[in-house]
Amino acid sequence: MASVSFDQLDGHIWMNGEFIAWRDAKVHVLTHGLHYASAVFEGERAYGGEIFKLTEHTERLQESARILGFEIPYSVAEIDAACQNLLVMQGFEDAYVRPIAWRGSEMMGVSAQKNKINLAIAIWQWPSYFDPEERLRGLRLDMAEYRRPDPMTAPSRSKAAGLYMICTLSKHAAEAKGYADALMLDWRGRVAEATGANVFFVKDGVLHTPVPDCFLDGITRRTVIDLARKRGIEIVERSIQPEEMADFEQCFLTGTAAEVAPVSEIGPYRFEVGEIARVLMNDYADAVRPLRAEAAE
Length: 297
Prior knowledge:
Blueprint: E1 12-15, E2 18-21, H1 32-36, E3 39-41, E4 44-47, E5 50-51, H2 54-67, H3 76-90, E6 95-103, E7 117-124, H4 132-137, E8 139-143, H5 165-176, E9 181-185, E10 191-194, E11 198-203, E12 206-210, H6 219-230, E13 235-238, E14 250-255, E15 259-266, E16 269-270, H7 275-288, H8 290-296
Parallel strand pairs: 8-9, 8-15, 12-13
Antiparallel strand pairs: 1-2, 1-7, 3-6, 4-5, 4-6, 6-7, 9-10, 11-12, 11-14, 14-15, 15-16
Helix pairs in contact: 2-3
């Protein structure tokens, strides 16, 4: 798939209430969402023909739109149904699901109060966000130059397209140096997250993770916290200073695309791919595939 441009894939996309041919899903060059980033999106995964925590993702999509000052003209139930029906139409069991809502092209300028709100959903096969072998060895992360902004300066509780500009810049810079990703600090200089995933650390059997007060409290993040609690693992959500990474033994990332991915290196800091990271990686794999988990019992 890497050799095929994404606008030339086969299949269908759900767009504004209709299933249309993939190559026909187009927007005008003067779309407000392109020029002013007035767009929100979700990243979801289907496993075995079921989209994991679909309704939670759809509710967050609706809330992200509300934060950006617009209303998606479809209900949560309608969006859920569109995602599920499109998955069947595409014929995929395991796939990535991308709903996106944006302001259209009726007005062009910072103010676009009368623009139509569009919604599209695309589904494609995307086996792994990170290289599988590198993931098992533990990912190598650079330290990002850019920081997550003060929530007084950006709508940080929304999954808004514009917030990912610095993520793209940071990931590109990291990959140019041979790293898989980058760790971002927040505007105060505290540990925040990777460019598209939350981060956890392990010390003396206890999980530590930053408080998501200026970045998304990821759905995968919350799932992994629940899985850890079922294992009796203590969770501490707190502010983490970068220099504390020298004392952590393990590290891993969580996200819909990343799933649970162990980390072996962040800048000058080193971690082992330890038991807690491996256990939670396996527990998450079982959680997203309930039939596999039942067969293992």
